[in-house]
Amino acid sequence: MAGNPERRAALVDAGVEVLAREGARGLTFRAVDSAAAVPVGTASNYFTGRDDLLRQIDARLHVRLAPDPEVLGALLARPRDRSLVTAFMHDLMARATRDRSGYLALLEMRLEATRRPDLRASFTTSVRGDLQYGMDFHREAGLPGGDETVVVLYLAMLGLILEHLTLPGVLDGVLPGVGVPEGLVERIVAAVVPDGGRAPA
Q1: In this structure, how many other beta carbons lie within 10 angstroms of the beta carbon of residue 142?
Q2: Model pTM score
Q3: Which residue numbers in the chain have pLDDT < 70?
Q4: Under a CB-based contact definition with an 8 Å cutoff, are residues 188 and 157 in contact?
């Protein structure tokens, strides 16, 4: 396997773009080479097969879609109340919108995982780890609500991101006077997160 880390990262990012645009069936080494603007056959020197490429895309997406440490630090300087949870959810939505290809690639990974047992096992572990991290972070940061709050927020925000990035017209005007997606983020947090002290985990 070739060992140039910068070239590998560029190929993985190209794979993200192909996956988001063409779906898993379009994720070929030739398509990745084309998206990365490298000679045909380059990707085959960096990945043992499509499963290897998908695993590396999964790992790369965790980096691409992670919160900015400076933004995180600034938010954590604020009081631990519902408005802070709202700010975190606005940041999540902003990151999803900013890296639309990354989130669409995540959705394609979910679909592909339903067809490939090995990918399903590794991707389930990866996504469950993200959810567990969210519960741990919420608890350790002293944010209002417990694990159930985080799980319900996770499910609601996942649904909002899915609709907003794939079929935004579904949500336009669904609640008169509520902006999409910002106003819906605020409604979700208001409905899910307790206003006041922490609830038991």
Answers
A1: 13
A2: 0.92
A3: 1-2, 196-201
A4: yes
